[in-house]
């Protein structure tokens, strides 16, 4: 893995790909002895918050190009299913038509079985956003719990109507 700093641009290159990050104004980044050093000029509130943010974003890029990120989704409900159609994915979610999702650039969608989907890529923010957009198609509803949910997500259930 190699990290190069060119002015405000930090480029991280690894076995899975390459990511770049533009560093905000007061923060300085330097590479010394296999360490990335992020420093701030003063202890202003904005400088402190940007310092931690920049350090975390660089760390996320390093993890992304070495290991990658994955986010699991589950399709729950009678008749609800997901199927792979080439690189895109087709959902049957109780609508009158199937919903076809094409993955954004740098994102891979893989289907396991007919109710599990994995979103993977090297950019943490892009993986999370793609998973959130897929979940947004049919959020889990609180009465039966049907819909698209994150793997391990707990849906709070409601009682529904009570009879007389």
Topology, pairings included?
Elements: E1 2-6, E2 9-14, E3 17-22, E4 28-32, E5 35-39, H1 45-66, E6 69-76, E7 81-85, E8 88-92, E9 99-101, E10 107-112, E11 116-121, H2 124-135, E12 147-150
Antiparallel strand pairs: 1-2, 2-3, 4-5, 6-11, 6-12, 7-8, 8-9, 10-11
How would you characterize the overall build of this protein?
- It is a single chain.
- The protein is an alpha+beta fold.
- The chain is 21% helix and 39% strand.
- The protein is built from 2 helices and 12 strands.
- A 4-stranded antiparallel sheet has the order 10-11-6-12. A 3-stranded antiparallel sheet has the order 1-2-3, with helices on one face. Strands 7-8-9 form a 3-stranded antiparallel sheet, with no helix packed on it.
- The radius of gyration is 21 Å and the shape is elongated.
- This is 50S ribosomal protein L6.
- Keywords: Ribonucleoprotein, Ribosomal protein, RNA-binding, rRNA-binding.
- Residues 2-68, 76-150 form the Large ribosomal subunit protein uL6 alpha-beta domain.
- It comes from Microbacterium phyllosphaerae.
């Amino acid at each position: 893995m190699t990290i190069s700093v060119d002015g405000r641009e930090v480029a991280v290159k690894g076995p899975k790909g390459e990511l770049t990050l533009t560093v905000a104004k007061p923060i300085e980044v330097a590479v010394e002895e296999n360490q990335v050093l992020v420093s701030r000029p003063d202890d202003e509130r904005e400088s402190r918050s940007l310092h931690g943010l920049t350090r975390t974003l660089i760390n996320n890029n390093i993890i992304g190009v070495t290991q990658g990120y994955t986010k699991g989704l589950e399709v729950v409900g009678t008749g609800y299913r997901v199927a792979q159609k080439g690189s895109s994915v087709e959902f049957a979610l109780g609508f009158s038509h199937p919903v076809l999702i094409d993955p954004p650039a740098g994102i891979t969608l893989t289907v396991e079985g007919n109710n599990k989907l994995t979103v993977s890529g090297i950019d943490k923010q892009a993986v999370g956003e793609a998973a959130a957009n897929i979940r947004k198609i049919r959020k889990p509803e609180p009465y039966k719990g049907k819909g698209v949910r994150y793997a391990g997500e707990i849906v709070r259930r409601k009682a529904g109507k009570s009879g007389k």
